[in-house]
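User: Earlier you gave me the apo prediction for this protein. Now I'd like the version with adenosine-5'-triphosphate bound, so I can compare the two side by side. Same sequence as before, with the ligand SMILES added.
Assistant: Got it. Here's the input I'm using:
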Amino acid sequence: MTDPVISIEGIAKRYGAKGHPASGGASTTIFENLWLKVNRGEFVCVIGHSGCGKTTILNILAGLDRPSEGVVLVEGRELAGPGLDRAVIFQGHALLPWRTVLGNVAYAVSSRWRRAPKAEVEERARRAIAAVGLAGAEHKRPAELSGGMKQRVGIARALAIEPKMLLMDEPFSALDALTRGTLQEEARRICRDTGQTVYMITHDVDEAIYLADRIVLMTNGPGARIAEIVINPLAADRSRSGLHHDPAYYSLRNHLMDFLVARSSAFREAPPDGYDPRHPPIVTLHHSQSGALRAMT
Ligand SMILES: Nc1ncnc2c1ncn2[C@@H]1O[C@H](COP(=O)(O)OP(=O)(O)OP(=O)(O)O)[C@@H](O)[C@H]1O
Ligand SMILES: [Mg+2]
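And here is the structure of the complex with adenosine-5'-triphosphate:
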């Protein structure tokens, strides 16, 4: 059963439209003919080389940018600008420096539920702050927090508004490895517990393997496409520290690395036979007789 929260339908992004004086008549296609559905409660990670348009797509989903072609539907309705049904977690957390942790989160809550009494707003904010492990730090200001704590506030703020869709653009990439690991675990636990639908960009293959139910592979730009969608074969109750004990982990990791190293650039010259951008190949890794996993589309 699929229940798409987001449906991306044939979107493209082009800059410098033909005939536009500043472009000298040339136009660059960043990506085109992208189709993707994100189902309710699903965690989707997007991987692709720098410049293929990942952030542009996320901004389009957030309603902060518009596609040059195609449409995006949120629960079946065409998306029209930013909305509190979608929360964005940026790499640079973008907290209000003059507000406390509680103030930052409560501000988002009160924008979402404008008529809620102050006590309810504070209660919701406190619950979100506790969920990311920041209970006790409610009255600190962003300048008094570490990078990891600031990012936690960003996550608390996004979750506190109970969005239909959580959009994350490399949210953990600026953190040290230890903090990144802890936050990945927290994010996964919270999203699973609450059935949160997530669309996340990452450069980190291991992060995608740990977090994602499906991994979307984008080819290099210009003219980027969705090359394939890989189903994560690892058990749903996987632990981050135990990933490397699972033989399926290595097969999946190799598959993703091979894509980034070779296939992401080869795709443009030689797309696979029968490639249909509306239905990119779904890759499942299956056990072969030798016990190894191999890709089946
Ligand atoms: N206003 C603009 N005019 C022309 N080109 C632009 C504009 N904004 C972005 N681009 C181009 O669009 C492409 C996609 O940018 P985007 O930030 O979406 O890439 P990305 O996949 O998120 O990359 P990274 O992994 O480095 O974050 C880039 O090549 C960028 O130069
Ligand atoms: Mg980006």
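For your comparison, keep in mind: Residues 110 and 117 are 9 Å apart (CA to CA).
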